[in-house]
Write a structure and sequence with these properties.
Distance between the termini: 92 Å
Number of strands: 8
CATH topology: Rossmann fold
Mean pLDDT: 87
Structural class: alpha/beta
Largest sheet: 8 strands, mixed
Number of domains: 1
Radius of gyration: 20 Å
Oligomer: single chain
C-alpha cells in the first residue's frame, strides 16, 4: 500500500513538472528588453528608458525576488513625463550572469556601482529602491555620496527595522519561504505557475519578463541566497549614514494604522532630510504599489525630489 502511494505521488510529481515545462515551452521564444553590460567578466541586464537630458537619471533597485521588470510600469510613467530611468537585474537574478557569494548588500552595491560606471549614464542620480532594495541603496549612497542627488524609497526596509527584535519572526518566515522556493524552483515545480508570476500589475513586456524569471531555478536560488544574508546586509547598510541635504521621498502601502510602527522606521530617512516627502497609498499592497494602477504616488515622489533639486528662481 505504501509503495502504491509513493508511486502515485511520484507520478503526480512528474506530471506536475512536465506540465510546467510544457507551459513555459508553449509560451514561445522570448527576448528580454534592455542590453547586457559587462562589469568585469560578468554581464548584468540593464533597461534604460526615456530621453537623455541634463536632469538626474532615476536608478532603480528591486526588492527580494525582484528584477528590472518590477519597475516596468514606473519606467513607462517616467518616460511619459520626459524623465530618464534605469533598472537592472542583480547578478543571478532575471537574465543577468551570476555573481560570487555571499549575495549581501556589500556585493550588490559593489555590482551596481560598477554597472553605473560602465553604463555611460551621467550622475548624480536619484536612486529608487523597493522593499529589501532599500538597504542596498542605503549602503551604495553612503559609500558613493557623489553619485547621489536624492532618494525615493518604496515600502523600503531600513537597518532600524531589521535590527528590531520584533522583525525576527517575520525574517525567519521569509527565510523559510526562500529555502522552499529555491528547492521548488530547482526541481521545476514552479514552472506550472508561469502565468501567476506578476502580482504587481505590469505592462505586457514587463509581465512576461517577470513570469520568465519567476519560474526558473537559478532566479529562485539567487533570491534565497540574498534573503539568507538579509541580516548581514542590513548591518552593512546600518554602518553608513545618509546626507540630510539629499531630498528623500518615502511611499508606503496598505493600512497606515496597522503598519504604523514599521512606517515610522521606514520614514526615518525622510524625516531626517532637508526636503522630505511622505505619502501612503492605502489601496495598494507591497508589490502592487509598483504597478500600473497605483504608481501615481511613485511618480509624485520623483516629482518632489526633482523639484527639490531645481535651482531656486532668481528674485529681482
Amino acid at each position: 500500500m505504501i509503495k502504491m502511494i509513493v508511486a502515485g505521488l511520484a507520478i503526480l510529481l512528474a506530471l506536475w513538472i512536465g506540465a510546467g515545462f510544457a507551459v513555459v515551452a508553449l509560451s514561445g521564444r522570448f527576448e528580454p528588453s534592455g542590453r547586457f553590460v559587462d562589469i568585469g567578466g560578468r554581464k548584468l541586464r540593464l533597461v534604460c528608458e526615456g530621453p537623455k537630458t541634463d536632469k538626474p537619471v532615476v536608478w532603480m533597485e528591486a526588492g527580494a525576488w525582484g528584477l528590472a521588470a518590477d519597475f516596468a510600469a514606473i519606467q513607462h510613467g517616467l518616460t511619459q513625463k520626459g524623465v530618464r530611468s534605469c533598472a537592472y537585474d542583480r547578478a543571478g537574478m532575471g537574465f543577468s550572469d551570476p555573481g560570487p557569494k555571499p549575495r549581501d548588500s556589500e556585493a550588490i552595491a559593489s555590482d551596481l556601482a560598477k554597472l553605473i560606471k560602465a553604463s555611460g549614464e551621467q550622475g548624480p542620480f536619484i536612486f529608487m529602491a523597493h522593499s529589501m532594495g532599500g538597504q542596498h541603496i542605503r549602503l551604495l549612497a553612503g559609500q558613493h555620496p557623489d553619485m547621489v542627488a536624492g532618494l525615493v524609497l518604496l515600502e523600503a526596509t531600513t537597518p532600524e527595522m531589521t535590527s528590531d527584535p520584533r522583525a525576527q519572526p517575520f525574517l525567519s518566515r521569509v527565510r523559510n519561504v526562500a529555502r522552499a522556493t529555491a528547492v521548488a524552483g530547482s526541481l521545476g515545480l514552479t514552472r506550472v505557475a508561469y502565468y501567476w508570476g506578476d502580482r504587481i500589475g505590469l505592462p505586457p513586456q514587463g509581465a512576461a519578463e517577470k513570469r520568465h524569471a519567476f519560474v526558473t531555478g537559478r532566479h529562485a536560488r539567487t533570491a534565497a541566497a540574498e534573503v539568507l544574508v538579509w541580516d548581514q546586509g542590513s548591518a552593512q547598510a546600518g554602518a553608513v549614514s545618509l546626507d540630510p541635504k539629499w531630498p528623500v521621498a518615502v511611499i508606503t502601502a496598505g493600512d497606515a494604522v496597522r503598519m504604523g510602527e514599521w512606517n515610522i522606521a521606514r520614514r526615518a530617512p525622510e524625516r531626517a532630510s532637508r526636503a522630505g516627502y511622505y505619502e501612503n497609498v492605502p489601496e495598494a499592497a507591497h508589490a502592487s504599489l509598483l504597478g500600473l494602477t497605483y504608481n501615481g504616488a511613485v511618480l509624485r515622489a520623483v516629482d518632489h525630489v526633482r523639484a527639490a533639486l531645481a535651482p531656486a528662481p532668481e528674485t529681482k
